[in-house]
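Review session, final week

We close the course with one last complete record, chosen because it touches almost every idea we covered. It is DUF3887 domain-containing protein, a protein from Candidatus Mediterraneibacter faecigallinarum with 161 residues. Go through it on your own first, then we will talk.
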Amino acid sequence: MKKKQKQTTTDPFTTAEKKQKRMRRFITAAVVLLVVSIACWWALPKNSSLESSDLFDAEEVKAKAEEVVQLLNAEDYDSLQEMTVEEVRFNMTKEKMDEAKEQIGSDWGEFQSIEEISTAERSQRNVKAAVVQMVVAYENKDITYMLAFNTDMQLAAFGLQ
């Protein structure tokens, strides 16, 4: 009967090589994490004061936002579409606005006043916009409008709450 020989495996890597390999993995992971972090930071929106903006005049933005509310209250969707970017224009119809109003509550009552206006300049992926949030009082309900204007002062985004 043959005796089983004990097989010994020798580690082909020295301790120094293992440390070097581990260090390469660590550096690679750190670089990947850094690149992903920078990409995320770049993609996230950044807000700044509209009053200190080089691109937008705060008073002009507020006036434009008030005009949007007036046009919506008057149901003048043709004028509203003229001041809206192409991508959003299809939403500025009586049917779409009635749908949006219905989701919030159909009986708003008559327009009373604009209670609050807050503005900011938002930069995301090197695209800048003037963002406006307005609380508008109607007889039966307060509605929050969220608007964004591009650098050409066209309505680029619209939302109701």
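Two points worth writing down before the exam:
Strands lie at 46-48, 111-124, 127-138, 142-149, 155-160.
The chain has a mean pLDDT of 86.
Good luck, everyone.
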